């Protein structure tokens, strides 16, 4: 191919070694709305070819080397049965890489992801960008609707959790009261829009000052359904894609963030690749934020 028809893409950053890992977790079983979230890791990998490495906003080329560690063997497994595979794969990835991008799968992958940080749960911080509390009851076992309740029951203190972008008429009063009673930092979608996402994120990061390592759960259904058709839980009135991308970049620049997941992307619901391109851009923004750590001289 001639130079005219090629550009360096984010996919070209994938090689044998690197500071950032991509790890797929194609889990869909146990979803409140059964679908095909298991297709998301491969769809995101393909989408990365469509992004250039040039970040026009900073005038910099993204140069962070990425390792694709493949998928945890969880296809078709219920969350309880796939827990060990995801936790162990995340633990191995965090040993070798400063930042691990865990691509679900449904939101049930967040629980094993947090356990995989390799830090005692009382020192783990969890930030969720999600329309939902994910505090459904656990009497039927772990599901995509209850990872935060599972983690509380596992021993993650509520004071170590901040939930951002929560939507009205998509959660119950009991979930809200339980979150507040547990000491979770609760930030609604209107908080994000009125106060600005940066102010909300800074408050959340400050609340988690006592945590040694952070995981961020990006449940893509936090984004407005009009901009994000490919997630069963997305609703009108959600976060704009712009705000989401700004949040991703800012959170990725926080050196304690060691694992970030992207969950609830169901490629079978997508329209015009909108969600695939949003998920691909999530990887780009994670890399841009990660490179800010280096630029700021912040080690991990
Ligand atoms: Mn969720």
From TrEMBL:
A Gene Ontology BP annotation from the UniProt entry: L-histidine metabolic process
Membrane among keywords: no
Pfam families per UniProt: Arginase
Coiled-coil ranges per UniProt: none
SUPFAM superfamilies, per database record: Arginase/deacetylase (SSF52768)
GO molecular function: agmatinase activity; metal ion binding
Keywords: Histidine metabolism, Hydrolase, Manganese, Metal-binding
Family: Belongs to the arginase family.
Annotated protein name in UniProt: Formiminoglutamase
Organism: Allosphingosinicella indica
């Amino acid at each position: 191919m001639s130079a005219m028809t090629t550009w360096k893409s984010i996919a070209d950053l994938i090689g044998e070694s690197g500071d950032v890992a991509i790890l797929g977790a194609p889990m869909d079983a146990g979803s409140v709305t059964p679908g095909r979230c298991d297709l998301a890791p491969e769809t995101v990998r393909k989408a990365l070819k469509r992004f250039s490495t040039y970040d026009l906003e900073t005038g910099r080329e993204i140069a962070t080397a990425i390792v694709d560690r493949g998928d945890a063997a969880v296809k078709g497994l219920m969350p309880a049965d796939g827990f060990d595979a995801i936790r162990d794969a995340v633990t191995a990835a965090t040993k070798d890489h400063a930042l691990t991008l865990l691509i679900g799968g449904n939101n049930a992958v967040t629980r094993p992801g947090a356990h995989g940080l390799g830090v005692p749960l009382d020192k783990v911080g969890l930030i969720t960008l999600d329309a939902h509390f994910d505090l459904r009851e656990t009497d039927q076992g772990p599901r995509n609707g209850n990872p935060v309740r599972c983690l509380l029951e596992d021993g993650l203190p509520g004071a170590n959790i901040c939930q951002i972008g929560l939507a009205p008429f998509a959660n119950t009063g009991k979930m809200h009261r339980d979150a507040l009673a547990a000491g979770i930092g609760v930030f609604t979608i209107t908080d994000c829009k009125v106060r600005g996402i940066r102010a909300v994120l800074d408050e959340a990061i400050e609340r988690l000052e006592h945590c040694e390592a952070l995981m961020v759960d990006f449940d893509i259904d936090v984004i407005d359904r009009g901009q994000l058709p490919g997630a069963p839980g997305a609703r009108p009135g959600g976060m704009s894609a712009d705000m989401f991308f700004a949040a991703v970049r800012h959170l990725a620049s926080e050196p304690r963030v060691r694992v970030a997941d992207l969950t609830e992307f169901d490629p079978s619901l997508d329209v015009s690749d909108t969600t695939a391109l949003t998920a691909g851009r999530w990887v780009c923004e994670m890399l841009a934020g990660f490179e800010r750590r280096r630029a700021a001289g912040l080690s991990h």
